[in-house]
């Protein structure tokens, strides 16, 4: 017991008999224990599904085993759907309300319709059965759902490796780091904000945006997914590539190691002025071109 706690305990003893003081201290100790247990339970409830999070938080919390079981079922369902796709299951055309797939407008085959792929149907069914519903970040969760199932397989080739366009004109002789330099060529880092470019594929248009350096990487990725989600049909999934690395994999791998979401900030990955590449894939994992 530190000096401050001892002082408060002695102050509570004034005017009370030893029995009354002991009963009061026991009641306060029980209340503190209940508060600590409630806070610990709230922290566990906010933890996303992951097989290693039990070791990270320690102990058997209520409901944790159910979340781990749901995670295993999700992986099994996706692997089964991917095996079906490998044996010839293929979806080429989709319809999602007013939006349609990019192939429909090019081929003029707007009457062709198909149901969403089995992977997406299983994903929706599993989420609804887990009483979570389809959240506001459904596109991002589905991409992470696919990435967890593909953890043992190699990641798709980044678009920056697929015959990038030739660059003409002046090239910089040195690759200067932007951290702490404020305004600089290609972007800025000013007043806690970074300028990050998002390019729709290798030859797509570039859209820049201000990003708070203290924002989480997951929130930054979701903001980009939310912009594109109405463009591609259901069953597709997306990824972002930065310096030839998948941002979705950079979210999933630390999650499996027990790293919490709020511990991965934008400033830990970006300096400001960089470009990330947004790429969409169909249900079979083939890269597709989309336009917004």
Sheet bearing the most strands, described?
7 strands, mixed
Residues in β-strands, percent: 5-15%
CATH class wording of the largest domain: Alpha Beta
CATH architecture of the largest domain: Roll
Low-confidence stretches: 48-57, 86-116, 177-186
**Cα end-to-end separation:** 62 Å
CATH superfamily of the largest domain: Phosphatidylinositol 3-kinase Catalytic Subunit, Chain A, domain 1
Q: Which geometry do the CA atoms define? A: elongated
**Relative helix content:** 40-55%
Q: Mean pLDDT score, rounded?
A: 69
Write up this protein.
This protein has 292 residues and is α+β, with helices and mostly antiparallel strands. It folds into two domains: 1-46; 55-161 and 183-292, Ubiquitin-like (UB roll) (Roll). It is 41% helix and 13% strand. It has nine helices and nine strands. It has helices spanning 3-13, 18-46, 53-57, 64-86, 102-107, 118-129, 138-149, 217-228, 247-256, and strands at 95-96, 99-100, 189-190, 193-200, 206-212, 237-242, 245-246, 275-281, 287-288. The strands form two sheets. Strands 3, 4, 5, 6, 7, 8 and 9 form a seven-stranded mixed sheet that branches. α4 (64-86) crosses α7 and α7 (138-149) packs across α9 (247-256). It is elongated, with a radius of gyration of 25 Å. Residues 48-57, 86-116 and 177-186 have low confidence and may be disordered. Residues 1-61, 88-134, 152-179 are annotated as: Disordered. Residues 103-113 have a biased composition (Acidic residues). Residues 1-23, 36-46 have a biased composition (Basic and acidic residues).
